[in-house]
Amino acid sequence: MGTRARDPQTLGGAGTLDRLARILAARNIDPASVEDLADEPEPVSPLEALSAGMPPRYREATADHPQVLAWARAVAEQAVAPSLGARKQVTTGSSLLLAGVVGAGKTHQAYGAVRLLVRMGIGVRWRATTAADLYADLRPRPGVDSERELAAVSRCPLLLIDDLGAAKSSEWTEEITYRLINRRYNHMLPTLVTTNLRIGDLRVCLGDRVASRLAEMTTRVEFDLVDRRRRRPAA
Length: 235
Known about the structure:
The protein is an alpha/beta fold. It has helices spanning 14-26, 31-38, 46-52, 66-77, 106-119, 131-138, 146-155, 171-187, 199-206, 208-217; strands at residues 95-99, 126-130, 158-162, 191-195, 218-222.
């Protein structure tokens, strides 16, 4: 690709162009590569980058529930910059248990909360998974270091677990869930959990240890008893 001719005035005149050419030559830099860089698109914004990594359905999700908004503000206030002048990052903070029937808007609010943190200027290293997908990823199998994957999920600064309690339970899922929740509980890592179950049903499904930690580490947010996916406009 050849270089494009440019008006010398745009770079401060012909003298500036000559000096730039000499500097590039001294450093063995091809002038064409500099021209190509100038044609590259501007970097995407943090919010655009975040949204690109979300499921398409939730890329425009907006949090508007008062308790969810309060949680985002609290987590943002506890964010810490890793170095002087760096962007603040999610570190420790409270967690939310978003409970309600299928279609009540829990997952939408959870993704909206993550987007809100980025809109507030906070850096967010995060992961989102359904409970069923989490168990599938962590199930021991050849060629996969399940313990390493569990450690990575456990240490993630912000984790969204969708549909906790919806997957088929077993002693193994109870133990995995306990290890994950217990690590996040001990390190006070913000966790967004959605569930269709009451806390009593979670206790039956996942065991006393998981239910006890969730009850202590999370603020419970109850959603309407109406499935929004089934609402129809009035005739």
